[in-house]
Write a structure and sequence with these properties.
By secondary structure, this protein is of the alpha/beta class. The chain has eight helices and seven strands; from the N terminus they run ααβαβαββαβαααββ. The protein has a seven-stranded mixed beta sheet with strand order 3-2-1-4-5-7-6, with helices on both faces.
């Protein structure tokens, strides 16, 4: 992803919280329970969008930071978070944060949007900026074990929104699923998985990584 390219969310950012956020809200709260925050933690959201995830952690007393390549999305996040979060326009594969800065680094439904060659670079950066005893939480589509009927209903809805997002977006989504999503990244790059959880009838995976190996 490049912040210099035309912003693909320029026309949809203002509508995101109306149409998309209600469908993903449950995932954010599952993620919070999966690795419960503690007051004073430094939390970074990579691909923070309109700031909904950061708002949850801010309400838990965390110090929150967000980075996104979409200026339009960041403008919406700023309206929501004001000066309570440090928000940056930037590229996830080359973040300007110091190493070992954050207790928790999150990416939710962002990696599948990226080209195949960019994904491991982004995860490497997330591991770099997490503290030695910190964690990286990846939440994204799970490629296998879709359960009937709920899972197939979710799957149909997911494909509808991914196609509606445009040709490039859908191409990256298909590549993500074809390459086994986050589990594929974990295996191919020998990442250290702390724990995982599958939800949404098999469509969504929660993967907690330790900072041990690097890509």
């Amino acid at each position: 992803m490049s912040a210099m390219k035309r912003d693909p969310y320029r026309s949809s950012a203002k509508k995101y919280d109306l149409f998309i956020e209600p469908l993903t809200r449950e995932l954010r709260y599952i993620g919070k329970k999966f690795y419960p925050p503690e007051k004073g933690m430094h939390v970074l959201d990579v691909g923070c969008g309109t700031g909904n995830t950061l708002k949850i952690y801010l309400n838990e007393g965390c110090n929150v930071y967000g980075i996104d390549s979409s200026l339009a999305m960041l403008d919406e996040a700023k309206k929501k978070l004001s000066d309570q979060a440090e928000l940056r326009l930037g590229i996830a594969s080359k973040m300007e944060y110091s190493s070992e800065s954050f207790d928790l680094v999150i990416s939710m439904l962002s990696l599948h949007e990226m080209p195949k060659e960019i994904r491991p670079k982004v995860v490497a950066e997330m591991l770099r900026v997490s503290k030695e005893d910190g964690r990286v939480l990846l939440i994204d589509y799970h490629p296998d074990d879709i359960r009937f009927p709920r899972g197939w209903m979710y799957k149909a809805l997911i494909h509808f929104f991914e196609i509606a997002a445009g040709h490039e977006h859908f191409k990256n989504f298909r590549s993500f699923i074809r390459n086994k999503g986050i589990p594929g990244l974990i295996i191919s790059h020998k990442l250290t998985l702390d724990k995982m959880k599958i939800a949404g009838g098999g469509n969504f995976g929660f993967y907690l990584l330790k900072r041990k190996n690097t890509i």
